[in-house]
Specification:
about 180 residues; alpha/beta; 5 strands; globular; about 15% strand; single chain; five-stranded parallel sheet; Rossmann fold
Length: about 180
């Protein structure tokens, strides 16, 4: 059996939903349906930032992992944390995982913040994920929330967190990248 660790925030945790409706659980169901022998670990923690992730990754490094899905950064963007700092934190997480598991396949989930944010921040934030994916030769999901953000039918009443239907789109975006590296 192989293992996939989903390491993220409330989007990964499935905030406000039963665990079975969070996209890592939907990926687990899809893996089973397609006949892949994988165990999915959901290490989503609501409110987590990349800085929190740097410290939190330590306790997950004892879990075997063949694929590591890194889906942190949204809370950094919401808090206006400098893009350089977010990038350094994500790099540190990638480095720690690769040090422990040199053969691990890494999928980086890109995040974006609305262009209504003044200045260059939105563009810098979007770019940091693309640059990290290239630099680290990881697989890349350009924008995990593509098609979900701003669509009230796909979000909880808070307008921020995907509902069960929205989580299905997160799972689809992730599956589209994952399916090519499953063995």
């Amino acid at each position: 059996m192989k293992h996939i660790l989903f390491f993220g925030n409330s989007l990964t945790a499935g905030y406000g939903l039963p665990a079975a409706q969070a996209y890592p659980s939907l990926i687990q169901a899809k893996l089973k349906e397609e006949g892949f022998d994988y165990k999915v670990w959901n290490a989503g923690l609501s409110g987590d930032t990349t800085a929190g992730g740097v410290h939190r990754i330590e306790r997950w490094l004892d879990q075997p992992m063949d694929i590591f899905v890194l889906a942190l950064g949204a809370n950094d963007g919401l808090r206006g944390i400098p893009a350089r700092e977010t990038s350094q934190n994500l790099q540190e997480i990638i480095d720690k995982v690769r040090y422990k598991y040199p053969e691990v396949k890494i999928v980086l989930s890109g995040m974006e913040i609305p262009d209504i944010v003044p200045g260059r921040y939105a563009a810098e934030f979007r770019k940091l994920f693309r640059e990290l994916a290239l630099k680290n030769n990881t697989l890349f999901i350009p924008f995990l929330l593509e098609g979900v953000v701003g669509n009230r039918h796909l979000n909880l009443p808070d307008g921020v967190h995907p509902n069960a239907e929205g989580q299905k789109l997160l799972a689809q975006h992730t599956w589209n990248v994952l399916k090519g590296i499953l063995s």
